Amino acid sequence: MLGRIPFGVFALLIAAPAGAQALVLSEKPDAVAVTLYRDVHRQVEPGQGWPGGYALVTETRTIPLPAGPSVIRFVGVSEGMMPETAIVTGLPHGVGEKNRDARLLGPATLVDAYLKRSVIVRRTDRATGKVTESDAVIQAGPDGGVLLSTPQGVEALGCSGLPEAIRYPGVPEDLAAKPTLSVTSDSATAQRVTVQLSYLAQGFDWSASYVARLGEGDTLDLFGWMTVVNGGSQGFADARTSAVAGKVNKGRAAPLPRGAAPELRLQCWPLGNTSMAGPPPPRFVDSVVAEDIGALEIVVTGSRIRGRVQAAPAPPPPPPPMMMAQQEELGDLKLYRVPEPVTVAALSTKQVALLHRESVKIARIYRGAFPSLPYSVGEARPPSSPTAIVLRAENRTSEGLGLPLPAGKLALFAERDGAPVLLGESDLADRAVGEEVELLPGTSSDVRYTVIGQPAGRRREAFRIEVSNAHDAPVTFELPIPYPNVSADAPLVERKGVKTWRVIVPANGTAVLNATRSLAR
The domain containing residue 444 runs over which residues? Predict the structure, then answer.
């Protein structure tokens, strides 16, 4: 005999004839953990289209096992589940086989399941409200309409002019309202067991979203969000949620079939001569009614959300919240654990506070890009070019930062007249502690530079670099020169293996560099 199942354990044991497999339904997990991995090849913001990352989902379920062989159906797994990765632990004799049930309950799949089978057609008179029911057999459908054999002959569903619905004797076992994983197992005795189901699922992603606000002097305040995206139709309530930063060594998985959900299309031929017009456009049915053996009516919704929730622009940073993701080491990767359970809802984007740092020291640089050689010597002076604004910080505790920064988007704000003003947006790559961090919020037309070709010998090229500063304060200008054999009339610094001219340009002033390089013989 089975022991008493405590209230709240959603599992159903369906008895089976002797020698057959009993069916055990586990409707939902008791607890769930979701660990998200980023799409490292992402070209667009997470939340646009089907997410290209994935997640490790771990569910804990309590189920009653009968004596003998059984089929256990785990209802409500992720839509993007990769069934080959599923691991089930806690069963007395392990798992015999696994099956991912792809057919979901809906108007079209119900019609398909009941082809050549008896159903009941319900019609409602618009004038009197009287409801009539009659037996029918579904002869064709669901594409292009549904044909029924009734005592009056062959009819097309939805073409009588009356509100119509189909009543089904029951829901077929192979149709599930939610994505389902089925496994077979065996038990010597009837018992209640706690099992753990773990699997990888596609259709998830996460990214860091940063908001920076310029502070007093050369400092900024930095606030980071962890933006979590679930693109599937199955949500996970009160999940222990984590995110992994870094590039994980993962092989390419075969893409899951994600065709559009089958739709029930009802088509009718217009009244009158059949040569008068072609067939009308299809009409979509939003719902049908299924009747269980015990006269329980189940409404099956056929419509489905097709769009994906897009990530909203990050707001200016609020005061630090109490709940913030906690960073942990995971080998060469970084794990960010949300300290409290959160709901990773279906088709949603969620943001959790990731980090907060105040008064981070920055250096403001105006940077140019060296043009291609050779130069046109003696022609008209080339036009000047604007410089890129670079905000540079060292990721060290002494500089006010000193923590890993996952890749993401950054919005830079400054305060004007007591209100935040957006200065620009920048991409931020993964940055470890001790590395240099650069933000590129935009360009400056007040600091401009020109590279001019100069006369030189046959085995040399010469050029002159001029930079002007229209600000009322000095600025720092940098220009990387991508040639190792260059000499100049001012010192050049080595920066990331590239010779670079770095100069302080006076307020409302200019600076000049003359340089040459030798040409290969």
Answer: 363-395+435-518
Reported pTM: 0.70
Q: State residue 256's pLDDT score.
A: 54
Alpha-carbon distance 134 to 151, whole Å?
Answer: 8
Residue 388 lies in a domain: yes
> How many structural domains compose the chain?
1
What DSSP state is assigned to residue 405? B
**Does the structure show a pLDDT above 70 at 261?**
no
Question: Exposure of 313 by Cβ count < 10 A (0-12 exposed, 13-18 middle, 19+ buried)?
Answer: exposed
3-state secondary structure of 51: coil
Radius of gyration of the chain measured on its C-alpha atoms: 33
Domain membership flag for residue 507: yes
In a domain, 454, yes or no: yes
Give the C-alpha separation, 111 to 505, whole Å.
77
Bridge partners (DSSP) of residue 504 are 476
Sign of CA dihedral 260, 264, 270, 273: positive
Which residue did the predictor score with more confidence, 351 or 144? 351
DSSP classification of residue 109? H
The reply to whether 513 falls in a domain is: yes
CATH number at residue 462: 2.60.40
Residue 290 burial class via C-beta count within 10 angstroms: exposed 0-12, middle 13-18, buried 19 and up: buried
Q: Which residue has the higher pLDDT, 126 or 413?
A: 413
